Amino acid sequence: MDRMYRYQRYFYDLTRKFYLLGRDRLITEIGIEPGENVLEIGCGTARNLILLARKHPDARFFGLDASAAMLQTARAKIDARGLDNIALANALAGDFAFDKTFALAEKFDAVFFSYAVSIIPPWRESLENALANLKPGKTLYIVDFFDQRDLPRWFRKMLQSWLRQFHVAYPEELLPFFRELEAQGAGEIKITPLYRRYALLAKFTKAM
């Protein structure tokens, strides 16, 4: 991951705004109360965390990423804005814990992935771990690429071919994974397609 983002981190935010669609909608839809702890998995340069921390100064935000290089850029951005309600950790999505990684006494009040599931090979284990670190009754949010089924075929093929060059792909078993959890009584899933299924916004509310 550090090799991939060693140089990309310097222009990551500038380029990603053109095709990581739906991130701002996700930010507006995360319900956050004062004093709550919110985690972003795969936080990158902390773009989303900074927006949330400014919007909710009385909440606390946490970010983890597998790339130490990306976190170096994230810390510099956070420090430059004088934000003291964001903490970062270098960790894998499938191997973190609210207590051991962030020294918290309780699980998170919200967890979200922003264009991270599609780039994590063990995405299923990562989602299971995210849910294990989420309080009952609280919500896991995902914004990411969808199947692009409603877009022109030529555009869909070109986009997916381009994404594969960066090892990015929509996991076709993502929705069946959540439907299975729902059938087991583990929670409730809501899927909202965005931009003719270019992307999706998923909300899985964990059972009490």
Structure description:
With 208 residues, this protein is α/β, with parallel strands linked by helices. It has a single domain, classed as Vaccinia Virus protein VP39 (Rossmann fold, 3-Layer(aba) Sandwich), CATH 3.40.50.150. It has 9 helices and 7 strands, in the order αααβαβαβαβαβααββ. Strands 3-2-1-4-5-7-6 form a 7-stranded mixed sheet, sandwiched between helices. Helix 5 links the parallel strand 2 and strand 3. The radius of gyration is 16 Å and the shape is globular.
CATH architecture: 3-Layer(aba) Sandwich
Morphology: globular
Structural class: alpha/beta
Through-space gap between termini: 36 Å
- The whole-angstrom Rg is 16 Å
Indicate the proportion of strand residues: 15-25%
CATH topology: Rossmann fold
The main β sheet shows up as: 7 strands, mixed
Question: Which key terms come to mind for this protein?
Answer:
9 helices; Rossmann fold; 36% helix; single chain; seven-stranded mixed beta sheet; alpha/beta; 208 residues
Write the layout of secondary structure elements.
Blueprint (H helix, E strand, L loop, with lengths): L1 H4 L6 H5 L6 H7 L7 E5 L5 H9 L4 E6 L2 H13 L5 E5 L7 H5 L5 E7 L8 H10 L1 E12 L7 H12 L9 H10 L3 E8 L4 E8 L2
Parallel strand pairs: 1-2, 1-4, 2-3, 4-5
Antiparallel strand pairs: 5-7, 6-7
Structure in a nutshell:
By secondary structure, the chain is of the alpha/beta class. The protein has helices at 2-5, 12-16, 23-29, 47-55, 68-80, 98-102, 123-132, 153-164, 174-183; strands at 37-41, 60-65, 86-90, 108-114, 134-145, 187-194, 199-206.
